[in-house]
Model the fold of this input.
Amino acid sequence: MQSWLYALECVAIPCAIGITMYVLFDLWSRRRAAAHPDHPLPPVDYMI
Amino acid sequence: MGPSLLVDGVVVPILGLAALGIVVGYVAGMFGIGGGFLLTPLLVVVFHVPLPIAVGSGLCQMIGTSLVSFLRHRTARQGEARFDVLMLPGCLLGVTAGAHTLTFLAGAGSLHLGSYSIPWVTAVVETCYAVMLLFVAWNYWRHGGAKVDVLQYLRPGPLSRVRLGPAIDLPRPGLQGVSAMLIAQIGLAMGFLSGLLGIGGGVALNPVLIYGFGFPMRQAVGTGIVVLFVTAVVGTVEHALRGHVHLGLATVILVGATVSAQFGALATRRISGRALGRIHAVVIFAAVAAVLWDLVSRLFGIY
Done:
């Protein structure tokens, strides 16, 4: 049996990675959209 | 061999895990799905990760992907929030029940067939995978098109005509008098699948919404994301408390998958909708073949 602290880590760390990736790729897609206004990035529609 | 992780006594190379994350993320970005249905069986088949840890760690990395998905969809006004609200209680009960069932199966010993034997957990979970994936692959093969907007119009399906308990209107997809009880039960089933198999349920929910209820594709894609995130969190906590989550493994896969998903999405520009649907079906059939091979090889001791 693991501790609640470990369970909390298992939730917090993927959340932190997810938010970081979202911010990074949002920034990338905005810069790309500015450079190529006729060819915007298609959305990544995770259905999961 | 390079850096590696020790997962319950099994040595797993980090580069191999990252490559798996990249492949799964690329496929996920290409087809607009999460890829949990590919990730968990491949962790078992390719890296021989124990099944409960593959399930728990798959759910853990799904927290990150579903959060990205939620952030992307929050302003798009896609999806039917009422469907999410009705599914949520059932999902939470289901994911807990699924995690308990997996723990029970992991301690249930082996199934003996003549002189051969296979752990109950492998037999049940991999059979569930194979059946569910075959159903989904058949649907995609038959209808074609995955993330593309092949179904932008409303076409009420058989589940929208079920009369069971109180009825509710779903304004976004334009459906009226849909059984609230049925939606709650679907939530229970999806939650159970998540807890037992480590998948988000989107791969099963998508066909139910589109072909069962008749949701337009865009509304289907946005439905269930909040539920998915909450289910992934609850499922991860349930599995983490039982020692079934390897955080390092989940982190490596999550980083690889989120990066490559962007490039998978870019690749959809060059492929027609129908071809995309067929490729999707072939990928799922390949996953089924891998699962069946694993099942047979374990049963007959081919490892």
Remarks:
- Chain A is about 65% helix and 0% strand.
- The first helix of chain A runs from residue 4 to 35.
- The radius of gyration of chain A is 16 Å.
